[in-house]
Amino acid sequence: ANTPVFVAVNLPKTFGVVIYEDENGNEELDMGIFGQPTELYGFSNDAWKFLGRPEHEELLLQKQAEVMRLELQLKSVMDY
Length: 80
Fold this sequence. Notes:
Blueprint: E1 14-16, E2 18-20, E3 41-43, E4 60-62
């Protein structure tokens, strides 16, 4: 669904964002045998890696203003 979520946080100069839908309620992003996410997920910078998680540096952003708007879309590994 297209549900906007607003989260107020004090951002450091450099940051990254990971979101996921915890389908089974275990409070973690489940991974497959090759390290690929098995639940819907989104990374800042639209970072993605085939059959795995992107490197930490790939999803880092620089704080541009006191208030920033990021749009992340939940995806499946199969979307690529």
